[in-house]
Amino acid sequence: MQNRGLIKFFAIIFALVCVYQLSFTFVANSVVSDAKAFAKGDTAKELRYLDSIGKEEVYPVLGFTYNKVREQQINKGLDLEGGLNVILQISVKDVLKGLANNSKNKAFNQALADAKTNQQGNQDYIDAFFQAANAANVNLAAADVFGNRNLDDVIKFDMTNKQVEPIIKQKVQESVESAFKVLRERIDKFGVTQPNIQLLGNSGRILVELPGAKDVDRIKKLLQSTAQLEFWETYKIEDVGQYLMSVEDALKKTEVAVKEAPVKTSGIDSLLTDKADTTAAKNSPFLGKMIAPGMQGAPYVGTFATKDTAAINAFFKRDDIKALLPANLANVKFAWGKTNAKTPDVTELYALKGTRDNVAPLSGGVIVDARDTFDQLGKPAVSMQMNGNGARKWEQITGAVSQQGNAIAIVLDNIVYSAPGVSKGAITGGQSEISGNFTIEETKDLANILRAGKLPAAAEIVQSEVVGPSLGQEAIDNGLLSFIIGFSLVLLWMVVYYGKTGFYANLALLVNILFIFGTLASFGAVLTLPGIAGIVLTIGMAVDANVIIFERAKEELDNGKSVQEATDYAFTWKGAMSSIVDANVTTAITAVILLVFGTGPIRGFATTLLIGIFTSVVTAVFITRMFLDWSLSKNEKLAYSTSLTRTWFKNLNIDFLGKKKMAYAISGILVALSIFSLATKGLNQGVDFVGGRTYQVRFDKAVSAPEVTADLVAVFESAEAKIYGSNNQLKITTKYKVDQEGEGVDEEVNRKLYEGLKKHLPANLKYEEFANLYEGKQIGILSSAKVTGTISKDIKTNSLWAVLGSLFVVFVYLMISFRRWQFGFGAVAAVAHDVIIVLGIFSFAYSFLPFNMEIDQAFIAAILTVIGYSLNDTVIVFDRVREYLDYNSSPDFKGLVNKALNTTLSRTINTSATTLVVLIAIFIFGGETIRGFVFAILVGILVGTYSSLFVATPVMTDAIGEKEGRKMAEFKKED
Q: How far apart are CA 167 and CA 713, in angstroms?
């Protein structure tokens, strides 16, 4: 090997760099361990401890502070660390409505609605809107659309729609970037360590990762709140009483009567006076839902059950009900009050007085500062300071309210937080305060979002994943155990099969592990549970390059070469290098595609797989060679085998092509059965593909999945519970309100889940303990995920393109590399065969196998891994066929193909065996969350090994044809 000294120098330097990079992780973990020991399970105390030492020196050798060390460590993904991962969709529809100045143009508003309905998978909403607008002949430059005074500096009335579209796209992107900045500022002030927030292309989506986050409901509110703060005057009960009675009368004609009303009185007099009447209201569709009317002078109309708010909102939106509004109430807006934690089932209805344009007289844009404080009664509140214009307007409003005797409603995101009266005249100076039923945490969050500013449009959580820290620790333990077992088995096999050379390959494998983790640390990559699986799988695949080299060296030894000559030849391009490059390039192609189309932990898997492919080739080609050359320089005896394995796979002469009819028949039956099962039974599609909510819930005792399902159906109408791993753990799925927007929806669903499971949970388990995350949690929600219908379409589309794209790219690569399309066709046919059979097995077995077999993003990652691995096997055989055609030709083309299959069989079996051993270790010890993922790869590699021998090569041979094959062989022989 040329330049051995230089290679040794770079290997040592790279190893030292990896150790240096990994040292930050060891130091950071040590500090975190100290923090946990100090906090004794108190998360807030642990965070305060880490914040307090952020600027203290914790790495004295290099003089680095904890903050510096933390930035350089390997970051653990949410499935290992625990925490919250969400994708927020900024409402492009709201942004467009704002840019159009809330236009009343019917065609424009219909196009907005049609865009959401007609939006295809992976299509941006704005593109769907432009399609709908053009189909409806909407003039985007019209004065009542985008040609208004807000945009007249960039949009002229004579512009075509094609000229307007890029301008609007730019304005929408600016709004999304503004939302990104606001969210980043909110998160920075929240106090979560190592938050990650990033824009996802031009989709209007924002990824937020908060490792270690515990209070899930609180964080979701923080993220989704638009901070649309408004100040409204309220109507008094006597102002709207007559209108409410007319609403009641109108609804009696169209609505089903309320059988028994909980209200104290049944006449309009009860809305205007403080009289009590024990007569229950009958035939009362609206007032019958009222629990109690507002008292004389109260700022609200009455109190209602929270469950009835949606129905009442629907009443007020009806055109016939709007038509009943008298002139003095033309600009009324009805809004609900903030629910009290002590009485979450009851809320107040407010009647708000809008301006002539039906908007609030004063918005929160005038707020220049906000801070959490306490009111005169010592209750948590938020104090706000307005700018000069706001202060003047505030003085006018408070003066009018003081004279009229009504109140000012302080409204945040259409929720009335408080509605104080003004008894001492106009308030000057612009100082105001929001008080109400707040906790200290709520006032801190409210002050935070007011300081950070409002979002330009609503932010909806379209995908979320929540993982508890206890589950994360279990994943680490399981991943580490599978890593140790799989690694040990591979090391043992290499020594048993190859003897001393296998020992040197093992040393190179240890260096490979160092390089993988060091590279992960250097790139700031995130280590996930699928990422650990990728590393363990890489261990199995890492020996592949060494196996190819060693098998080639054995062949050269059998041909009479010395050990030195055989070793030298094995490391040449004609020897093993071309096979190694082709095999790893095809695997890398699928990993790159997975990296592009995947999200979250799947990207972690693709990242570690790519790094592992690169480091495996480097260590096999250079590090192993370095050890072998050192051994040969010491005159050590190298044989590339042991006395036990010396005769294995020698002098094989299996007629693989002669058995192709039988192989075609077997494959045809398996493919037909798979397609039949897919057509009749289908697949168990996870929430990634169909949308929905999923929860992993653990109980303190064994539970019955059918019984729990029945209890949840009573709450959600549609739900399913399955045993997940042990019989005290369930995986629960439901589509309840998955596409409904609003910051309180997720919490509402969690509370319903709690109520539905209450009889199966410990009697003393509170909702907060059930829903939120904390160290050592063993009962309740351990992890959850949500995928809305919109993003599930995108995931399905991306997954389809990922699989088809990888097949196409590999076909093109092999066609170019082997200079004939038949090689690419044979490889792709075998891969398609493998994918269909794996899908068929998942379709047939998901209903009875005792582990999760959902088709989700992880499954697509497994399919792409199978594609890469199957291609790896096939390419080795094809490369040997090419070699025989180029250097060792015979006029018998089929004989050459059979010879290629026989001479590479030891490599095929060895590589498959080592990889399968590793996968079995992960399958058994890797934990429930990854078992289905590993099973797909396990089945795929078994089928892939078979197809590389009995499908890919026969298909390639048949595609070339006997006449063309003989011509190829004879042509090469003449050369």
A: 48
